[in-house]
Amino acid sequence: MDSSKYNLSAQELQTLSSKAISAKAAAYCPYSKFRVGACILTQSGEYVIGANVENASYPVGTCAERVAFATAIVSGHHDFKAIAVASDTKPPASPCGMCRQFLNEFTTPAFPVYMYDSEGNYQVKTMQELLPDSFGPEDFAGERA
């Protein structure tokens, strides 16, 4: 797949993928054993990683994508270029519904989501493809102070 289609250089995509794959090692998943790593590339060229963190009360756990985005947001980043998500599955796992809505809050419909499998192969989809007919901050623009 041509990374330039999404305004990423080959080097940016390589770094993004390797950091997402490496981030799986930080996952805390003693219950599901389902490791997920994520890495966001900001528009300023910084990489922010995340990994899933489970809890004995399953709904309390946090997915890798949300960990990465929350870390980026509280670190002052608001403009993003792409995200990579890596799992130990084949084919690659896509972000869950909750993560899709969470990512939608901070991205555009054309934002690319690279999904890596256990062998480093990937698929890429845009947020529009992952969450069609979505709603986001723009839908509340008239209601926010």
UniProtKB/TrEMBL annotation:
One of its GO terms (cellular component) is cytosol. It catalyses: 2'-deoxycytidine + H2O + H(+) = 2'-deoxyuridine + NH4(+); cytidine + H2O + H(+) = uridine + NH4(+). Gene3D superfamilies: Cytidine Deaminase, domain 2. Pfam families: dCMP_cyt_deam_1. Its cofactor is Zn(2+). GO terms for molecular function: cytidine deaminase activity; zinc ion binding. The keyword Hydrolase applies. It is an enzyme of class 3 (hydrolase). Substrate binds at residues 52-58. The keyword Zinc applies. Transmembrane segments: none annotated. GO terms for biological process: nucleobase-containing small molecule metabolic process; pyrimidine-containing compound metabolic process. Residues 11-138 form the CMP/dCMP-type deaminase domain. The active site is at residue 65. Zn(2+) binds at residues 63, 96, 99. Belongs to the cytidine and deoxycytidylate deaminase family. This enzyme scavenges exogenous and endogenous cytidine and 2'-deoxycytidine for UMP synthesis. This is Cytidine deaminase. It comes from Aspergillus avenaceus.
